[in-house]
Amino acid sequence: GFSSTFTGERRPKGDRIFEALGATDELSSAIGLAGEFGSEKGHSFVDQLHKIQCMLQDVGSNIATPLSSAREAHRKRTSFSEKPVLELEQWIDSYSEQLPPLRTFILPSGGRSSAALHFSRAVCRRAERCVVPLVQAGEADPNVAKYLNRLSDYLFVLARYAAMKEGKEEKIYIKPEP
After folding, report:
1. Is the pTM of this model over 0.90?
2. Where is the Cobalamin adenosyltransferase-like domain (predicted)?
3. Could you report the per-residue pLDDT of 44-101, keeping only the tens digit for each?
4. Which CATH number belongs to the domain containing residue 160 in this structure?
5. CB count in 10 Å sphere of residue 171
6. DSSP secondary structure code for residue 161 in this structure
């Protein structure tokens, strides 16, 4: 029931660090699936998704290096800068400019690419909820939580963009009659 962090520290498998690592791994897998669907449709954003999967490896490295037990060499090797956060914000702005304004709640829909991106967004939000307590405890870099926060926004905007590019209708929320 134990596993090791990057620093060599042994912790129970149920430790919140391993929960966050698992959620981040699931997120990378979900994004990989979305990328495969996007590739089938010839979307140009597939390269961005691959870059994000690589960045999630760096997110995992930072999470797996609890700052309470990390030596300076560990910290330097697994540091996480704000640069990827800023890149996501640029991508969000670029896709948002091309989309019609959102006037109602939409449901995860809009074709396979879009639905897979919406699913990835939900997994991303769970990963963020797992990472935030680590950041609050001083165990992970705050930029990791910022990255996941912006990534969920990126995935939402990208899901809408994929639906638009594929000519698929986004299903909207309709309040049921009482």
Report:
1. yes
2. 1-162
3. 999 999 999 999 999 999 998 887 776 777 777 778 899 999 999 999 999 999 999 9
4. 1.20.1200.10
5. 14
6. H
